Amino acid sequence: MEHALTLPPSLARRTAEAPDNVLRLSPQATFARQLPAGARIAVQAGCVWLTQAGDSNDYFVSAGEVHVVTRSGRVVIESFTPQAAMRVL
Question: Do 77 and 25 contact (CB within 8 A), yes or no?
Answer without folding.
Answer: yes
